[in-house]
Amino acid sequence: MKEKDILEKALSSADAEYLDARWEKISHSKVLFSGRDLKEISQSTMIGGHIRAVADGGMGCNSWTDMDNLDHAISIALLSAKSSGRRKKDKISLAPVPAVKDTVKINPKVDPRPISLEEKKDLLKEYLDIVLDVPKIQTATMYYEEHASEKLFMNSEGTCINQDQVFCAIYGRITARENGIIQSSSLHFGASDNYGRLKNRHGDVEKKLKIALDLLSAKPVNSGVYTVILDPSISGVFTHEAFGHLSEADSIANNKSIRNEMRLGRRMGSEILNISDTGNFPGVSGHYVYDDEGVASRKSLLIKDGVLVGRLHSRITSAVYGEPVTGNARAVDYTFTPIVRMSNIFVERGTSSIEEMISSIDKGIYLIGHKGGQTIGDMFTFGAQYGYMIEKGKIKGMVRDLNITGNLFATLQNIVAIGNDFSMDESGGCGKGSVGPMQMLWSSGHGGPHLMVKDVVIGGV
Q1: Which helix (H) or strand (E) covers residue 444, if one does?
Q2: Residues 196 and 52 occupy one common structural domain
């Protein structure tokens, strides 16, 4: 009996208000170099499923790996749901959504799955050969990562969805050293289902090499308050980390102060500011057609003309808040239950050119490339890979050691110009542990236009 028939029979016969099940086959490939040393070349496969049950106002979950144990897995989930329901004051309910029957297949321009690990290893070696023999280069690390999944989702409401996803990317770091000064640049290529985006990137590797070398002679930035221009990479990370996680409804459900700050109808910035999250966005890392509750992904407008108008939801949080479902409930794999996750978040394109922004600044900094960071509530700290001083409307010398610190709500108010350009960053992934165990989700993207922001605190010397 096929998995679909087994699940359909089990879901229809169980004593529950609601049941859903995901059955997944997941493969992961990785090739890792540290210098010229091959540290890892691997390919693994996981097969299993995840059950969610709603009964007596509670929800229970369980994972299993053998279809012969499905009935036992359902019974455990039901027992957990009923036990939870007896203890809960607020009963679980799910926002209504239409039943869906669909099959989603992918058709990449160049599918990474048939390509051998040996060929992927050789591509990394080509890029490493560009940098490792260059004077002043101390080392370089580079790795290839690939995820592929075949997922069957069914629920007791009649939904049945087969959905495939593939993701591949190359990440690396080039480290230069001279006279005790160490600087680095990072690279990330791909972040989509198309292996072709990873090939013939030799020129881009050379650009990253030059940045690492140029940073050795760049001046450390003087700390202070500046008007800054954020390139699409940093504007995307700022939007994702500082604003996006507070737009995930489950993240703020039990935080009264932040929930009040994120009340719909609040003015968050000037009328030029619009922020969206879009799941169905082919060619970028956060693309998917249906989430892990079988809800179609869609474009969710979060800020419109400077006003907070929406947030991201699962069916559970949609019912709690009384707001529309958005198709943002996702899990890393069958060992996790879905939580609310961004898909591809960005500031919408504006009307200003980068030249107009630069020419309008008397003293500021043009910040390029994200370099890690963290958020605590509405406060954030991010690093930039490098930047250029702006003086009297002109680009001047390169600066390094750039850290950006601020308050989300003040920073959104201080966005004074938005670029007429737009690009999604060629990186992907997002970690979230504020709701349940940490989930490192690869299918999440960010990007946007250039942003000009006044009164930004920059840490330096």
Answers
A1: none
A2: yes
Q: pLDDT tens across 174-194, in order?
A: 999 999 999 999 999 998 999
With H, G, I as helix, E, B as strand and everything else as coil, classify residue 296: strand
Cα gap 155→21, rounded to integer Å: 6
Asked whether residue 265 falls in the same domain as residue 159, the answer is: no
Query: In which domain, by residue range, is 288 found?
Result: 220-459
* Rg of the chain over all Cα atoms, to the nearest angstrom: 24
Same domain? 66 vs 209: yes
Cβ atoms of residues 410 and 379 within 8 Å:
no
* Residue pLDDT, tens place only, 220-241: 999 999 999 999 999 999 999 9
The total number of structural domains in the chain stands at: 2
Mean pLDDT along residues 378-387: 93
pLDDT band per the 50, 70, 90 thresholds, residue 27: very high
Taking the C-alpha atoms of 390, 392, 396 and 402 in order, what is their torsion angle to the nearest 10 degrees? -20
The helix/strand/coil state of 298 is coil
* Residue whose C-alpha is closest to residue 24's, from 108, 150, 201, 186: 150
Last residue of a domain, one of 197, 217, 237: 217
- Please state, in angstroms and rounded to a whole number, the distance separating the CA atoms of residues 12 and 19: 9
pLDDT at 1 over 60: no
Q: Could you tell me if 343 and 387 lie in one domain?
A: yes
**In the predicted model, what is the mean pLDDT of residues 281-302?**
96
Helix, strand or coil for residue 193? coil
Give strand pairing partners of 101.
160
User: Is 133 found in the same domain as 107?
Assistant: yes
Let me know whether 188 and 319 are in one domain. no
The answer for residues whose C-beta is within 8 angstroms of residue 267's C-beta and 6 or more apart is 306, 307, 308
User: Tokens in use for 440?
Assistant: 């490192």
**Stretch 251-255: mean pLDDT, rounded?**
91
Q: Residue 372: is its pLDDT beyond 80?
A: no
Tell me, yes or no, whether 113 and 155 share the same domain: yes
